[in-house]
Amino acid sequence: METEDFENQYPEDSSGIGEGGSTRRAFLTQLGLGGVGLAAVPLFSQAKAQTIPVAEVDMLKVTMSVNGKKQMLTIDSRLTLLDALREKLDLTGTKKGCDHGQCGACTVLVDNRRINSCLRLTAMCDGAEITTIEGLAKGEDLHPVQEAFIKHDAYQCGYCTPGQICSAVGLIQEGRAKTDADIRESMSGNICRCGAYQHILDAIKDVQQQA
Ligand code: FES
Ligand code: FES
To answer: 101: CA distance to ligand 1 center in Å?
Structure first.
């Protein structure tokens, strides 16, 4: 703070500022403490002396097949499948959108059923078969749903796309959605901020007709 500004705000304390010596109030103001800071010192000392309990973390061993590869993980029992995939296995194709089960960006297949991986604990996946977007292509050959998404421009920014594709693969395997309304309803958990819904619908119908 410039001396002139300080003088305007604290006229009684301004002597000494800029001359190597501060008044008590100016000194405390400069530290951001003021009178409250002094009163807080004993409280702070007491708080420091207290022992803060730290919750113990349960570590678990989980074995699962991810994209056909056996994975053995030692994990915090609270770790979600989404975080295990992205952070432990570096499978970052699965996206974290809301992290609250509301957008579908994190959709993967667990034992061939589509689920929001942000809502699934990894500990619940022991022995499961997980398929993520990285596991759909066979070598250089894309999955038919991936091909159809490209053919029908079913993505714009692409952020929701891995979840949309995994969800569409699950939907087609389920074989229940027959009409446009069925497909829209069945895909309603996958939100696309870009509004590529009509193109996604066209891509899914295309693959259904090929089957
Ligand atoms: S990140 Fe899982 S539903 Fe949004
Ligand atoms: S393509 Fe951008 S959110 Fe769906």
So the answer is: 4
